[in-house]
Amino acid sequence: MSYTIGFIGAGNMSGAIIGGMIAKGIAPERIIASNRGREKLDALQSKFGIRVAQDNLEAAQADVVVLSVKPQMMKAVCEALKPGLGHNPLLVTVAAGLEVSSYQRWLGDHIALVRCMPNTPSLVGKGASGLYANDNVSAAQRQQVEQLMQSVGITQWVEKESLINAVIAVAGSSPAYCFLIMEAMIEEGVRQGLTHAVAKALTIQALAGAAELAAQSDVEVDELKRRVMSPGGTTEQAIFSLEDGNLREIFSRAMQRCANRADEMAKQMGEQ
Known about the structure:
The chain has helices at about 10-25, 40-50, 55-60, 70-80, 100-105, 140-150, 165-170, 175-190, 195-215, 220-230, 235-245, 245-270; strands spanning about 5-10, 30-35, 50-55, 65, 90-95, 110-115, 125-135, 155.
């Protein structure tokens, strides 16, 4: 059965999801996006042929409504939408830091809501999204969210809302960790005599290839690592150096700080 999808907010993430859905065969006429500014709407309409509106209430008449505005704006947006949600649509929020309880306070306890934590590789169809559904979300609605977000990558459900903070640490924020690793590798490649262009191309391809190999392999990543480490060889020396530098502890501390900050932000914004 066909359902309609409305996007409140027409930023990069909305554009990525819309593009992914259309690439997967969802008809443009099933999609509507709203935004205060006209420029982003015109760009989406021109590129994808979807319907657009500057009135959020018009987009909110869809069966699935994606809330894709900044967390600081969410309260005002939700309170303005509340009169137009009498048809009880499925709500999907991609805003970080706001808990289900905040949306229920603004829109009512009856709402069916999925918290979605996507990451920026969704912009190129390689996203990883964590999903949490409140008790009002049906099995059919879960499938709708999966179809929505799997258009830009993979999805994983968590059964406790608190685990969304772990999703942020593992997936939401982690592209920045990878970019930092790339930055360090490129800089060292240049120090060892490569041009910046050569070091950058090799670094990006090596990490992209390692990720694809891990995705396609039937063994765990620690075994893949071991297979690269010939005894007494070059890779072994590099790994020994990273382990001696407590790389695992560094990552653990960084990801704990990430999750802790997500929890702090949720409490701060939940007080609005």
